[in-house]
Q: What sequence folds into this?
């Protein structure tokens, strides 16, 4: 077997070419360092392209009252105060500049009457804050970054998957993986590596994520000695399609509710009024009239349809369990009866087409059927809030793969801005790090040869397990046992199953041939998905409270002590090891912005729904 | 739902053939689901490119019964019961394996297009553009780069030799987006005429017909670009203005000049 390795040398290697990776590569190359951008898919196809509703930034174009302090407050409260305060602060302060910068690079956002960038309402944001282009904001963002990047002298390696990081004395020296098109091994010798690899949604059955979301960055970071935090914090987006089965999980933008859509159960009841938690009571409308007035007049309290995603997802879950769901096991999302057909088609064109073409549903005439879908991982690589450097020197992380910014729950719209703000910082600090380094780190040829053998191993086995079947078993396990509502018993069962799947995955055999062989790719991705699934499940078992994207049926309340702790995951001798660490406390002037006390009330579940 | 008969191209750069599969289907399935089912249960190495499965990323382009389409947006219930379905890779680009083709032609053209260059900001430091003005260009920004318009375009579909002098409909859309951008100041008219080969297009509208985003490629991008080229090249006022403004972007020495617009 040909195990020749194609070798490249760069100062900064960025892995992942969604919003964070592209922005990081642009910044690194602007710093004058040799920069490579590596992506699993073709350029411009990363998951950022799927983002619909908008980019959160306190531009103040629609509501003059908005500013970074309000955005900071909303982000922290939405994250149930488990966020790293400094990341939330940097994000709120820098997001407007990053959005305006996209405009300098050619992006065309929808406009206000005065010709400025229009902003729309979204869950958990006090003011209309999301810069957007209809419901295809992610496409505008990724294409703008892509078109800007191609003129920056960045070398792009498409359809190339990175498998492991390489290290010299505990600091990064590069990464090794394979070129999907040619089937060749590819080694990137580098001074610094930026992970921008997104999350691990593909470990769940119902997810809005594409095949790329296999936790490569989490696994590579862990295996290189970095720490992850709060992997139990997984976001179930409340509104995914539920029917037909083949599109189950596909995202339905929060913009539907931002633009006036409302959730209803099988009885036609706007049920969210029953699920307003104590923590958000003061700012949430408790009657339909006030909720409807809020869209036009922000002196009213916000509609509970736009509570943060964790609250809405749990409420939908409870309605379905109580027997008040829609025919295909979701609830109804109705904008047809509330806005004109012309308005819906203008504001939500891709939702209109998505439902028309894939479900045969005209959303200007009838309600959509929707239900929760695994969408985002709040947990991830523990990073320095200013530089995005992980606990491994030379390893940086930005976007979904990094943690801290969103705490226990991410607000809609805060991801695109996160990608830009921390993508830029990752590129900047990685380039500075590379410049400071006196020499290229040394490559450990034993590491190279060991990793090369691991990559090629599935191709050399015969008669083993089918990787597709193993993947299906893993997604069933995570869906059934590590879902929206968790218990210790089920989490332990999940660990047993993950353990057995790992043994079987090590015997996985694939079809022959190295050129574009998806069975080989999946066999390798199973390894990362299994490691991430174990990290999520063990972290979920350790955190004995309910907070944000982590709900324990056996510990239904937030616990103030747990609210001060991160769950830290690392590998020791190849084994997942957990501990807790104190959450850094915000300085008093920022704490003062947060207003109400930490959450103490039980997660709201109405009578009869339990 | 019944079992369907699907013919899928299996092969690589050196050649290949259609192979027939019987695939059980469920209600609501799309062609991409069927291909994935073949992969998971019969042919683990069947190569197919895909990402979003929602018509937003433009990865899963193929020819379904000879028509360029996105596999993720083609529902199985649009076929007659018992109809045989044939899935082949897009024809204009070289096959890598099975349904996956080498689309680097497109990325190479993208690199050559002169970047967006905005005019100065307003006196108050803002950028003011009005919805009516941006909407025209927003239509072009809907492009998901599925390259189906490139696949169907007869200029390059059957003429490998013309690829070097013809950027194709996708890049006419991109050029139109830049040229009509309310803030852009770069002048690409000469390049559009000389380098990108707009003159080869004889507006048969095949590209518009296959665009999954329903962009009016011919009417809103190509024809206005042709008008600009004509005005700038043959209109004496345009010619004089161009002379006064200085030298616009042009061909490098030795580059061939394609037919006029």
A:
């Amino acid at each position: 077997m040909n195990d020749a390795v194609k070798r490249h040398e760069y100062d900064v290697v960025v892995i992942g070419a969604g919003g964070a990776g592209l922005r990081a590569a642009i910044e690194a190359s602007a710093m004058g360092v040799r920069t490579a951008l590596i992506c699993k898919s073709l350029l411009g196809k990363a998951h950022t392209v799927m983002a619909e509703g908008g980019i959160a930034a306190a531009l103040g174009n629609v509501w003059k009252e908005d500013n970074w302090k309000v955005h900071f407050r909303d982000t922290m409260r939405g994250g149930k105060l488990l966020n790293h305060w400094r990341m939330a602060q940097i994000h709120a302060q820098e997001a407007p500049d990053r959005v305006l910068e996209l405009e300098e690079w050619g992006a065309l956002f929808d406009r206000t009457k005065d010709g400025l960038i229009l902003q729309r309402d979204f869950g958990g944001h006090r003011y209309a804050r999301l810069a957007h282009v209809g419901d295809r904001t992610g496409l505008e963002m990724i294409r703008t970054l892509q078109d800007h990047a191609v003129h920056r002298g960045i070398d792009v390696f498409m359809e190339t998957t990175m498998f492991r990081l390489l290290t010299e004395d505990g600091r990064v020296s590069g990464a090794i993986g394979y070129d999907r098109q040619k089937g060749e091994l590819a080694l990137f010798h580098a001074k610094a590596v930026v992970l921008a690899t997104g999350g691990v949604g593909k470990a769940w059955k119902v997810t809005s994520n594409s095949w790329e979301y296999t936790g490569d960055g989490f696994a590579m970071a862990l295996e290189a000695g970095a720490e992850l935090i709060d992997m139990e914090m997984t976001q179930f987006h409340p509104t995914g399609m539920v029917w037909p089965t083949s599109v189950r999980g596909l995202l339905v933008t929060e913009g539907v509710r931002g633009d006036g859509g409302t959730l209803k159960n099988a009885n036609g009841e706007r049920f969210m009024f029953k699920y307003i938690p104590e923590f958000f009571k003061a700012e949430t409308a408790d009657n339909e009239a006030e909720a409807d007035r809020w869209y036009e007049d922000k002196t009213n309290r916000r509609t509970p349809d736009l509570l943060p995603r964790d609250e809405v997802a749990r409420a939908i879950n409870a309605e379905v369990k109580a027997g008040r769901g829609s025919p295909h096991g979701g609830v109804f999302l109705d904008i047809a009866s509330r806005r004109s057909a012309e308005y819906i088609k203008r504001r939500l064109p891709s939702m209109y087409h998505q439902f028309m073409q894939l479900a045969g549903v005209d959303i200007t005439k009838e309600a959509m059927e929707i239900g929760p879908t695994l969408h985002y991982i709040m947990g991830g690589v523990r990073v320095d809030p200013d530089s995005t450097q992980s606990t491994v020197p030379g390893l940086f992380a930005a976007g979904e793969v990094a943690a801290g910014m969103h705490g226990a729950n991410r607000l809609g719209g805060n991801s695109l801005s996160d990608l830009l703000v921390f993508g830029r910082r990752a590129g900047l600090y990685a380039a500075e790090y590379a410049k400071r380094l006196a020499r290229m780190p040394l490559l450990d040829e034993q590491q190279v040869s060991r990793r090369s053998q691991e990559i090629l191993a599935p191709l050399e086995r015969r008669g083993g397990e089918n990787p597709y079947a193993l993947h299906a078993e893993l997604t069933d396990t995570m869906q059934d046992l590590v879902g929206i509502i968790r218990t210790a018993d089920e989490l332990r069962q999940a660990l047993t199953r993950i353990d057995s799947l790992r043994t079987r995955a090590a015997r996985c055999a694939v079809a022959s041939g190295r050129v574009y062989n998806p069975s080989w790719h999946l066999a390798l991705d199973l390894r990362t998905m299994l490691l991430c699934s174990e990290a999520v499940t063990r972290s979920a078992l350790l955190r004995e409270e309910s907070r944000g994207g982590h709900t324990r049926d056996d510990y239904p309340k937030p616990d103030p002590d747990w609210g001060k702790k991160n769950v830290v995951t690392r590998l020791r001798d190849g084994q997942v090891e957990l501990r807790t660490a104190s959450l850094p406390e915000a300085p008093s002037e920022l704490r003062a912005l947060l207003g109400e006390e930490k959450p103490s009330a039980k997660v709201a579940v109405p009578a009869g729904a339990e | 739902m019944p079992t369907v008969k699907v013919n899928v191209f299996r092969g690589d750069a050196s050649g290949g053939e259609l192979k027939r599969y019987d695939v059980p289907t469920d209600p609501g399935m799309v062609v991409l689901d069927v291909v994935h089912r073949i992969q998971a249960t019969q042919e683990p190495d069947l190569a197919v490119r895909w990402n979003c499965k929602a018509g937003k990323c433009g990865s899963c382009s193929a020819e379904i019964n000879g028509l360029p389409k996105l596999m993720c947006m083609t529902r199985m219930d649009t076929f007659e019961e018992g109809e045989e379905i044939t899935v082949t890779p897009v024809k204009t680009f070289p096959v890598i394996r099975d349904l996956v083709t080498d689309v680097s032609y497109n990325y190479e053209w993208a690199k050559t297009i002169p970047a967006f260059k905005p005019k100065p900001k307003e006196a108050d430091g803002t950028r003011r553009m009005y919805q009516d003005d941006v909407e025209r260009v927003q239509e072009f920004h809907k492009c998901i780069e599925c390259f189906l318009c490139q696949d169907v375009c007869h200029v390059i579909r059957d003429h490998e030799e013309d690829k070097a002098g013809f950027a194709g409909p996708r890049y006419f859309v991109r050029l139109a987006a830049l040229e009509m951008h309310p803030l852009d100041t770069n002048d690409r008219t000469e390049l559009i005429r000389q380098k990108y080969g707009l003159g080869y297009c004889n507006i048969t509208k095949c590209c518009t017909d296959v665009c999954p985003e329903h962009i009016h490629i011919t009417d809103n991008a190509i024809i206005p670009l042709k008008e600009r080229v004509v005005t700038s090249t043959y209109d004496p006022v345009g010619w004089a203005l161009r002379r006064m403004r200085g030298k616009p972007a042009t061909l490098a020495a030795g580059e061939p000049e394609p037919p006029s617009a």
